[in-house]
Amino acid sequence: MNFTIRNAKKNDMPQVLHLIKELAAFEKEPDTVEITVEDLENDGFGTPPAFHCFVAELNSKIEGIALIYNRYSTWKGKILHLEDLIVSESMRGSGMGTALLDEVIKYGHALGAKRINWEVLDWNEPAIAFYEKKGANVMRDWDVVQLSETGIKNYLAKL
Predict the structure, then answer these.
(1) Which residue among 69, 107, 131, 155 is the active-site one?
(2) Is 155 a catalytic residue?
(3) Quick one: pLDDT band at residue 92, thresholds 50, 70, 90?
(4) Over 10-73, what HEC string results?
(5) Is the pTM of this model over 0.90?
(6) Torsion angle of alpha carbons 151, 152, 158, 159, nearest 10°?
(7) For the residues 5-31, what does the mean pLDDT come to?
């Protein structure tokens, strides 16, 4: 398989959004993606960019992405967050996910990141096995906590 891993370009964002929607369908939430191509273009290529994205390209088609951004840990310092590592269903098992993760790890190391974080659904056993095989620690004793846009508004309304 002769695919290329490279930095995403602004004109890749329609294909990136397609993969994001494919992931949402896989995760049984096909109607929850709210972002648009324009959001991805503005947020990923604005000043400063809100995220960095690597793409895996095969025959001029984006078949995988890794979308990352900087965070800060009060315990460790600079960390990197991997928001999504997506490989199209037809390309899973091709080594593309490993190549994308390799690029993320190299990027984080070059930035001086003390840790790289990401989440995985507890029922996605193939992904969990993949990450553990790569040496990641899947922390099953932590829960993800979020406030949705509505939750933020409701919180502020009570102040």
Answers:
(1) 131
(2) no
(3) very high
(4) HHHHHHHHHHHHHHHHHCCCCCCCCCCHHHHHHHHHCCCCCCEEEEEEECCEEEEEEEEEEEEE
(5) yes
(6) 160
(7) 96
